[in-house]
Amino acid sequence: MATDMDKPDLSGMWECPLTKWDSNGMNIVEAQKEAAKQASGTLEIRASAEDNALGAEYFRNNKDMIRKELLKSGSIWFRGFDLMKSVSGYRQMHEAIELQPCLDPLHSSGLRKFSSERDALYEEVNKPSLRGHYIGLHSESTTKRTAAYAAFVCFQKATEGGGRFLVADGAAILAEMDTALVQKLYDRQIRISVSNIDIPPSFPQFIQDGVKNLVDAAVAPKFDMDLEMMIGADGKEGRLQAVEIAESPINRHPVTGIPVWFNNAHNHARKLRDRRPCGVPEVGMTEVFYADTMETLTLEDCNEIKRASEKHITALAMEPGDVLLVDNYRALHGRDVFQGDRYHAVSWFTWDDNEEWRGEERRPVQKNGMNKVINGMMDWLPKDFESDQS
Ligand SMILES: [Fe+2]
């Protein structure tokens, strides 16, 4: 797990780029037809003895092929490569294909922990307290910020089994889903709440409002999302929820223009979470609403999202050194429950060939100290408690 001190420090990496939304004026029937033509599975690339002998050179030699295939299929599973069994080798891999590391979209919350900060490597959800928690399909994305690519790496697989990595093509899910439901969600749009704070309903209104204002002023800005504080939105009296602004459930891929299912409902809908292994405390519970009326998604709609999504999941049993490269605007990811201990990590990447999409912003490294303090204080919480990404 050691970093290579001969390599430059990547701590001052790029900010996570703003989400590229392109969803206006879509004809749903046409969008589904277009998505169906592009639907794809995960491409597998297995290392031969010769590939392994080349080390990072293999990735340098095949950079163009890898980038082209990633755009075409949305995800590539590299299997059996010795190079990525170490932190330094993993970094050599993504540097060889010239990806540019960036912050996690939720980095500013202080809840995302680095595995190796100077290598821009974050830890995935490895905590024993969350091993029994199923993470549904999502993109590493908020309404505001979205990483362009991700490279998930296995350093140690779960010692007692489970923990398969889940990946699904957003184009295949869109093509699969009941047209009436896609149309309904597209017309009404969705809103996602990312946190619940239960204020005893017996508290007088002015205290409830005081808590709301306090969270709004002190907590919400840390999340770098466009959040609205709402009380009782999901029908629970006294429940304060931090709700993202309205978004389209589908989007056109920024580079290819392919229409894809692009939202985190499979992971975030309460009716689905309540029906599967979930170890997240109430404060980290999420919910999905129809944006126009702020009603929660019906069970029927949740079940169709579940059916269409799960039909296209590929569950990967990753071995040490395996890397799953993901186009975050095309493929969604998740993780099955596991037993024992495991160690997986991930780096996020920004746009490398579209500078105007990337922006100029880099991580202000002087904030390091504060982020470390917050990380330390928050360590007792499930690190992904606000939206359990990755
Ligand atoms: Fe994630």
Automatic annotation (TrEMBL):
<dbReference type="InterPro" id="IPR003819">
    <property type="entry name" value="TauD/TfdA-like"/>
</dbReference>
<dbReference type="Pfam" id="PF02668">
    <property type="entry name" value="TauD"/>
</dbReference>
<keyword id="KW-0560">Oxidoreductase</keyword>
<dbReference type="GO" id="GO:0016491">
    <property type="term" value="F:oxidoreductase activity"/>
</dbReference>
<feature type="domain" description="TauD/TfdA-like">
    <location>
        <begin position="62"/>
        <end position="344"/>
    </location>
</feature>
<dbReference type="InterPro" id="IPR050411">
    <property type="entry name" value="AlphaKG_dependent_hydroxylases"/>
</dbReference>
<protein>
    <submittedName>
        <fullName>Clavaminate synthase-like protein</fullName>
    </submittedName>
</protein>
<dbReference type="InterPro" id="IPR042098">
    <property type="entry name" value="TauD-like_sf"/>
</dbReference>
